[in-house]
Fold each of these.
Amino acid sequence: MIIELERARTVLGKGTTPPVVYRQLKALSQLLTSIMSARIEGNRTSILDAVSGVAKTRGPGEFDVDEGVEEILNIQRAVDFVDAAAPSEPISNLFIRELHRLTVEGLRREGDRTPGAYRLGEVRIGQSKHQPPWPADVTDHMNRLIDFVAEPVEPQKQLLQTAIAHHRFLWIHPFGNGNGRVARLLTYAMLVKQGFSSPTDYRAINPTAVFGADRAEYYNQLEHADSLSNDAIISWCTYLLEGLASDVEKLTRLGDADFVTEQLLLPAVERMQRSGGVTVVEARILGTAARKTTITAADLTEVVPGVSAKRSQAIRRLLDRHLLERDPANSRKYHLVFSPNDFTIHLVHRLDRVGLLPRILRDALS
């Protein structure tokens, strides 16, 4: 299994899906992962509400969202921080405390009185027999964990190192609240450093998808590993590595341009048109964009016959709804936008239909 995952590090760097499409799929995947991480902790925000909340933040002026959405937005900001910092910055106490600050700041129910600071009091883990270390010992335990994370190991052992670090972090439970969310972000950061995920190419593994596949099993495995016995730690590592292997198999499908176009984008456009989200003509425009990746007004002469002003008006309406976006290098070229907009929920339904949506998100579709 480790050998298969090691091969995947190279395979995931390749694919036929156009970069502009894959980047958007990854951005959507990261949003879904943020929703998933929050739902593991009990957040019940629907995907539709989360997408609407993210869309508000992209618009002009001030916005107001409920705390469930704000929690997801915080995780999104922390993921962005990891993507920007993890490739070059060492994973340090400062790095981890910044993850915590970004994750809990501004929250009430799921926040922490001291964002970005290790706890000064005792904590209990809900429904767990494990008692985390005394507050006075937290810094020493975290220093040892940081040293372990930074220790050079052979490539085939990096994922074992990552699995052990995830459990050890939660065993320490260094913060008053938000430990689960930060643990998953830390694990993602380690995978970025190891080349299993990248903001620039087809590597997009995020361990939260593994944990979200079966929330109860995730907690059971963590609880079992808290004994720190060799067998329990091996069981935990096997659980995580098997989950990652399954996730890699799914992710390779997103690197296949034909699969993305024929099984995801075009059916999602059709679903949106059937639900009344776009007109027949608008659906044809979006379908053309899905097939060609980028389009110009001239590509729509058969879809929108008549004078060029009609095509310009149709494009403008889709631009205003953020369903199309101008190409940064050429303002007369446009591409389909996946998220956050009215198209997103239809694309998520397609991800579910083809088996790419983790279990924990299925009831979030309603």
Amino acid sequence: MNEADSPIGTTADAVVIGAGMAGLLAAAVLSGSGRTVTVLERDTAATAPAPRDGVPQGRQPHVLLHRGLCEIEELLPGLRQQLVAAGGVPLDTGNLAWLGERGWAPFGTPAFELVSATRPLVEHLVRERVTALPGVALLGGARVRGLNRPASGTGWLVERHGAPAVRTDLVVDASGRGSRMPQWLAQQGLGEVPATSVDAGFGYAGRAYAAPPGHLGRVAGVVLLPTAGCPAGGVALPVEGGRWLVAAVGAAEHRPPRDPEGFDAFLARLRDPALADFTASARPLGDIAVHRRTGNLRRHYDRMASWPDGLLVTGDSLCAFNPVYGQGITVAATQALLLRRALATTRPGWEHRLVRRLARAADLPWAIATGEDLRHTGGERRSGVDALFGRWSGEVDRLAAHGNVRAQRTLDSIYHLVGSPARLFDPALIVSAVKARLMGLPAPSPRPPLNSSLDRAGSLQEKTG
């Protein structure tokens, strides 16, 4: 299609495809560079926090990792305060009841801050901030059907279903794991995009419950991790509006069901009764939402021999993770900061160089997510070095489960993407591991104080019921 065949409805310095978190953060950066930005979103623009069809996992609990919280605050100063003012619940991860593969994590020592809120609220506040920036226009109900070059040969025409094309110098694809960029590049004669997929078949079922943030006393929330030996788990976190979100998660035949009776029975079968006890002490709100599109998918645009000018890919369009690890928003924020730095000194070919840097930003979270998921598929294949690293990580995890706070905080820093895996080789941890081998491990970390809190909550519910 040439320019004459495609009526042009508007022009912009940049077009962002997708108004999820990756697209909104990219738009904020582009606006800050003085560009006019048109954001094309296939969902109808919402005026209040609400789940979107384009984010089917939006009804499930979300954890905005500490690095993500800090980076979004850098991109949109004051957002943390807005989130708390809107009801988001600040919590310290050291106060989570966290049951890992080898036992309970040490409880009650300061760690990393989170603000727990629903995905729709986070997106709504970010969308309000971004659309108020100079030069940003968000068009809801805009379905992109392709990319073409105008007759001049420079820039792009972003083709839309039922609407004129948008002409622009820069396109940022942030349309998510369902991105059609591979097909569009093939139509441009750029060949096939290599891709890697790792899918452990995880499924989620989530439900909201009415309970105050202090429902569990000193315990800020509950996390029961699925493990290779027990591929089922769950989470309970407080969110805005006097609610908690409870999710059950399981792989393959262990995926949780949608019906309330099956959901309750699933929680009752977990390694610890904490979540079953919680749901018995709180009031359910609404139906159970399920989500099963959880595979890890990485498109290797960085490996392509040639790359067109004026084109970038970010967020889940580039690398989508199993949502259970909570990495997607944080990686999108990291990539937005990389975009901001790149825009300060653009030279010919800067887009291809940036795509490679954006891909590298996904390396560590990809290794974490796929490394864990492969353990559930039985398809894990590790080199000698990777196998040794995995065994050593297990040793550090074992130290943490036996009360070593340094070990736990090291693992936390890697999980929250604020620390390098090299921190696992802290000499103090090596010494602790040697001592444990020679003298034995201390007693396991005790179960956090859950029973008394839930007993009190249950008694209160009976009195007020």
Amino acid sequence: MFIAKKGRLALISAVAVGAVVALAGCASSDPLGSGSDATSATDTIVVGSQDYYSNEIIAEIYAQALEANGFTVERTFRIGQREVYLPELEAGGVDVFPEYTGSLLQALEPDAAGGTSDEIYAQLEAALPDTLRVLDRADASDQNSWTVTQAFAAKYNLTDIESLKNVTEPLIVGGTSVLETRPYGPAALKEKYGIETAGFTPIEDGGGPLTVKALVDNAIQLTNIYTASPNIKSDKLVALSDPDGLFFADNVVPLVSQKIDDKAAGVLNAVSAALSADNLVSLNSESVNDQKSAVDIATGWLEQADLF
């Protein structure tokens, strides 16, 4: 399936250079703008990503793996949230996108039943429009969580989401604007557990450094941070356990258009087979703590996984 590692150094270098150029070109305020005719080329696979560093790393892994197997790839990274990129995928403007099974299912069907990882995957397959499909899911997941500081957890003996009822001070939630209306958002805390929140502070960096700083500084007391974030350990945070399944399992999965043939699907499935939960935490740490580029992180992981 994959090209042998021997003799790949020149190609890896070319991929990295090409990716840097493509990423620079995606820095405009409208990454889905019509300034390039390449998007509509039938022999080009357009790989997209959310405006989230971890998602961009996975998208870059997909892009480099496809290029290593002879596909022409265009990168359209940092698009934004699902409200923006899902219509583009359905319209055929993007062909490959790293997604998360539970979050995508809830975006498509807010009243989805949930269940085990397998059940969520099956429900997701059924919920997708005919123009899209998901390939094999990875063991890696970037699970949503309600997160507090260790100090706040110790003060109120917080262990799981329901234990937030122990909090006796105003509980301010912070996060991206869309968090306020997510199926697991503040309204769900009140409806499911009777937990009252005192306000919502929009912080638009997707659980990044601004969100973490607001949490650590006690400007907010509760936020949604992904469990694969290296900040969970480095900033002494606690992801509250979720025994009731408020958050669905969120395995990483390629969401693809009809353009993706069996060969391309095989490449992406091989990536999913190799991408573990620990891998994803390490990849995120390389981005956040080591300040490496998505291009370098992806290249290093593909070499280590022997997928070049």
Amino acid sequence: MLRSSIVTLITLLLMACSSPNVYNDLNAIPSTEAHEHDLGIAFGGGGVRGFMHLGVIKALAEEGIAPDVVSGTSAGSIAATLYASGMSYEEMETSIEKVGMSDIADFVFSSKGLVNGKNLSEWINSQVAYDDLSDMPMPIALTATNMTSRETVLIRSGNPGHAVQTSSTIPGAFVPVEHQGDILVDGGIFSVVPVYAAKELGANKVIAVDIYCHNQPKPEVSVSKITLAAFRMQSCRLSEQELNSADIVIRPNYEPSGSAAFDEKEQAIQAGYLATKEAMPQIKALLELNG
């Protein structure tokens, strides 16, 4: 009896340490109609590998290339949102240089997850000058997974921070987002690189940025490493057809080194930059063809 009471008390205490993420302001729908656009960029998910997206943006900026629409999943939703808000590469670089793990990860003791997610939401909102995704100068769509309907949904309007947090809510790590009675989590479950989302926005040609699937290393034999590797393999296999539908896929050569990865921003950015420079002849040919 005493043991049961202690377990119940601990469970209640753990649940009380996180605050619910109820975001009914988001427009999370399976598909949408859009105007036709020339070029879209789909920024893929991949955790701390997301710093590579900044290198991609830098290389494109040097060539005077800018997309008409952007889409993002998980870590890619951060890049997509900053980009769509009209921030220059230099402004994004400054923001990324200053951000630390504690700025975006609010660790909690909860049975719902280890990270609440609100710090990430607040950081995004502190960086962009818009209160709604739909007001941004560039059309944007972020993906999330609806656990209730078991499908990928697109977020095209609503609070930018809430949208990024939702798209980045890794199952089992982040406290899930509640949206109009549904449970939303990371968009990378079904759509690691949101090529279809860019096409939903009307993009005729799509450049995909894969920071997660092309260079999966052999995992260490431990419970956590094998579990993460299995999740990665499964998500990438489910997203394979979507990724192959892109006109060009940029695949940076970088894999973070464990817990120190957040301090390897420069290495990640450089990897994204070099991979984009290597793909530049293809990109320019695509744009000439599209023109």
